[in-house]
Amino acid sequence: MIRNTDAQITLILRAARAREQHSSILDRRHEMDQTDRRILALLQQDASRSVADIAAEVGLSQTPCWRRIQKLHATGVIDRTVAILNPESIGLGLTVFIEVEAADHSPEWLQSFTAKVSAMPEVLEIHRMAGDIDYLLRVAVRDMAHFDDFYRTLIDTVALKNVTSRFAMERVKATTAYPLER
User: Fold this and answer.
1) C or N: which end of the chain has fewer Cβ atoms within 10 Å?
2) Would the pLDDT of 66 be above 70?
3) Whole-structure pTM value
4) Is 12 helix (H, G, I), strand (E, B) or coil?
5) Dihedral class, residue 149 (left if φ above 0, else alpha if ψ from -120 to 50, else beta)
């Protein structure tokens, strides 16, 4: 007989919910036609373009184009619209990828880790990983002194088993645009 702890059951339920959400997103993707994909490709390149410009580019009048964009927002395909900054121009030119091995794998630890690390403004992304590491963070800092301050705060904030930092020497490619071809 297999016995699961409450923590294991919680993790199993979270995984099932994540699969359901992923499945729902896939269902939404199948509802999109080629025109929606063209609209999304244009918006990923420049979300400040006018509806009139986008409509002309995809061969629609403005109102149907606007409705499609609103539907893409309402269904969560478009998560949000933001300005993408040049990190060097705002003094945050050092990118660090931090590999974290968790000291604990309980739901309580995960909740604490997620809340505390998410609140750190230098942290741009947190990914839960498969393989040798548990989490991968992408961090933007001014310089090595700023990183050292960040690192000390990180290890004082939450219990970690191991932390490995890797410093980006050059950003060879950076995009936020997802491939939309089918």
Assistant:
1) N
2) yes
3) 0.78
4) helix
5) alpha
